[in-house]
């Protein structure tokens, strides 16, 4: 066994710990589910599995002895009463109580995952391996919790059933050799299922990225965001080829593991088990022919023995599932245990005076994966290679003072948006530091720090909620926030569209969940996103391509509105379109991750450098139009 295999091999203590931690969490979140499921799915189910065999044995014994009809009818009546009671309780639990408790547990677990998601570094989304495991955690956490509770309850039920049935068989004077053989079959089943579950985990792990690719393709086809491109371009051919390739890859995976399952279960396990079962029947038949047991006892005992085998087999199968649960849970625990690299300080954030980048460099390093394994034995060491890295910013020095209007310009890929992520502390610099009022931004409470900065991202998102909730970026109170929302929308130029909406600011955006909702154009959506900045008392505004979806007239009106409402505010414009640069106090020109020119519009035009070249090219296009 290799060192790597030894590290990944789970000890019994590790398996117990992983499963018990989740069991404790379920007890905290839904104690009523744990108690009721143990009673119904554990005790009741165990008793029910034993009752049928016990009643059957007593019924056949009674018939063999020639007991009065009233006695036989009494046995049948007891069986009927028990099943009426059991099925009434079982139906009420499964149809009325259990679904609600499952919803409650699912909500609590996902609430925890959602909160954790808001804490993890944005850089984690750049790592496909982390993202795969993140999706795995989101998909598995709730269902895996229910499976563990169900398996624990079933184990209890199997123990109750086995104890009752074995006691009945011994009392019926069944040959102990038969019982020993049946128990041995259960042990064999445990070994087979151990290897089967290891194969199952590897199977699921290999399928996960393929399923994620399939889900992406499905999402492209059913979301309205992609409808126009699918109909007007050739991306449909590309996606269908991707879907075909994905299907072929999934078939290969299924064939690969199907062969393993066939040999583990199909040939070895099933053939062996069937041979043993037939051997037991033949042995008991010989005993009956020798007069060692009556026909009725033989018939009832065969049924009870199969129940013993089934209960033992299911028992060991359930036990064998806990290592599998443990492997899945470590993905879940690893995600919850992930420690962000961008961490909050504790200092209060004072009123904004200045923001400075001092010799800041940043590298997107895709070779050094985020570390989030729960167990040290699986913890990978960082790679020393830099082949997966990409420099986005190199040695940036700049300072922005309170009240300044700054323009950061450059062609696409120059590093402008990366700079904004550093200012917002979505990333921390690879080297150098970001200073707020002359003090490291890392010293401040990160939520309070970000609350000082209002940002319209280039890839802003509109949510399936009301106009007002979109503007407030959260809960909306008509009495408290009504005027604020209307003023913000007016400032962003959305008033004309708002007046056309019958429900005004209470109109749902998108029709995904409300047929009375509205789908906005790109320019209208951008105005709603911009209104978010106007609606909050931010001290620093960052406008990342704020007019990219607007026509020249709307762009001019927006720029004038920003200037009117930004009195006393500090504003950073990010753009590769230079229509906003004339109103900036200072312009920073970026090229290939470097700050290459700094000055006012007139100063940079006089330099006849990259800024002047870019401005003249754009000016020529406007003139030619």
Q: Pairing-aware structural class of the strands and helices?
A: alpha/beta
The CATH class designation of the largest domain is: Mainly Alpha
Rg result: 34 Å
How many H/I helical runs? Answer: 18
Sheet with the most strands, sense and barrel status: 6 strands, mixed
H-E string: HHHHHHHHHEEEHEEHEHHHHEHEEEHH
- Measured by DSSP, the beta-strand proportion falls in 5-15%
Summarize model confidence as the mean pLDDT. 81
Strand order of the largest sheet: 6-7-8-3-9-10
Helix content: 55-70%
The CATH topology of the largest domain turns out to be ABC transporter transmembrane region fold
Beta-strand segment tally: 10
- State the separation between the terminal residues, measured CA to CA: 72 Å
Name the CATH superfamily classification of the largest domain: ABC transporter type 1, transmembrane domain
Give the name of the CATH architecture of the largest domain: Up-down Bundle
Low-pLDDT segments, ≥5 res: 366-389
């Amino acid at each position: 066994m290799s060192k790597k295999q030894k590290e990944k091999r789970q000890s019994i203590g590790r398996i117990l710990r992983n499963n018990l931690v989740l069991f404790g969490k379920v007890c905290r979140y839904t104690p009523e589910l744990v108690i009721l499921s143990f009673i119904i799915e554990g005790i009741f189910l165990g008793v029910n599995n034993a009752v049928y065999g016990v009643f059957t044995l007593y019924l056949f014994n009674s018939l063999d002895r020639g007991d009065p009809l009233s006695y036989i009818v009494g046995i049948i009546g007891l069986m009927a009463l028990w099943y009426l009671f059991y099925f009434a309780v079982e139906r009420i639990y499964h149809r009325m109580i259990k679904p609600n408790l499952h919803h409650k547990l699912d909500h609590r677990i996902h609430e925890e995952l959602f909160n954790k998601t808001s804490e993890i570094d944005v850089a984690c989304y750049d790592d496909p391996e982390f993202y795969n495991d993140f999706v795995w955690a989101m998909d598995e956490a709730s269902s895996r919790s229910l499976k563990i509770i169900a398996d624990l309850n079933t184990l209890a039920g199997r123990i109750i059933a086995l104890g009752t049935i074995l006691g009945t068989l011994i009392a019926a004077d069944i040959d102990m050799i038969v019982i020993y053989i049946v128990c041995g079959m259960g042990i064999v089943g445990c070994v087979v299922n151990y290897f089967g579950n290891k194969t199952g985990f590897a199977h699921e792990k290999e399928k996960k990225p393929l399923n994620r690719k399939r889900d992406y393709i499905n999402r492209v086809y059913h979301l309205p965001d992609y409808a126009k491109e699918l109909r007007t371009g050739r991306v449909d051919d590309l996606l269908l080829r991707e879907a075909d390739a994905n299907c072929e890859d999934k078939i290969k995976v299924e064939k690969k593991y199907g062969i393993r399952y066939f040999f583990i279960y199909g040939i070895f396990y099933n053939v062996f088990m069937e041979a043993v079962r037939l051997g037991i029947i033949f042995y008991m038949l010989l005993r009956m022919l020798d007069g060692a047991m009556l026909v009725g006892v033989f018939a009832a005992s065969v049924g009870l023995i199969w129940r013993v085998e089934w209960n033992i087999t299911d028992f060991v199968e359930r036990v064998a599932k806990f290592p599998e649960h443990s492997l899945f849970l470590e993905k879940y625990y690893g995600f919850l245990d992930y420690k962000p690299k961008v961490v909050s300080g504790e200092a209060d954030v004072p009123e904004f005076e200045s923001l400075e980048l001092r010799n800041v460099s940043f590298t997107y390093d895709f070779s050094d994966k985020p570390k989030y394994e729960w167990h040290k034995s699986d913890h990978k060491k960082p790679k020393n290679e830099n082949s997966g890295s990409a420099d986005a910013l190199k040695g940036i020095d700049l300072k922005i003072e309170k009240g300044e209007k700054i323009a950061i310009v450059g062609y696409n890929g120059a590093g402008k948006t990366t700079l904004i992520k550093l200012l917002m502390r979505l990333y921390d610099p690879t080297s150098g530091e970001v200073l707020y009022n002359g003090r490291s931004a890392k010293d401040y409470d990160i939520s309070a720090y970000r609350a000082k900065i209002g940002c319209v991202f280039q890839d802003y998102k509109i949510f399936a909620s009301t106009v007002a909730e979109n503007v407030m970026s959260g809960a909306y109170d008509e009495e408290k926030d009504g005027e604020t929302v209307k003023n913000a929308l007016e400032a962003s130029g959305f008033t004309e569209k708002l007046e056309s909406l019958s429900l005004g600011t209470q109109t749902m955006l998108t029709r995904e969940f409300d047929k009375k909702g509205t789908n906005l154009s790109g320019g209208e959506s951008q105005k709603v996103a911009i209104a978010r900045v106007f609606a909050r008392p931010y001290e620093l505004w960052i406008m990342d391509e704020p007019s990219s979806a607007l026509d020249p007239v709307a762009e001019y009106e927006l720029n004038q509105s920003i200037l009117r409402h930004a009195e006393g505010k500090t504003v950073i414009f990010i753009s590769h379109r230079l229509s906003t640069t004339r109103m900036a106090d200072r312009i920073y020109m970026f090229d290939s991750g470097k700050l290459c020119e700094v000055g006012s519009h007139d100063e940079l035009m006089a330099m006849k450098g990259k800024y002047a070249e870019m401005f003249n090219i754009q000016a020529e296009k406007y003139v030619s139009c």
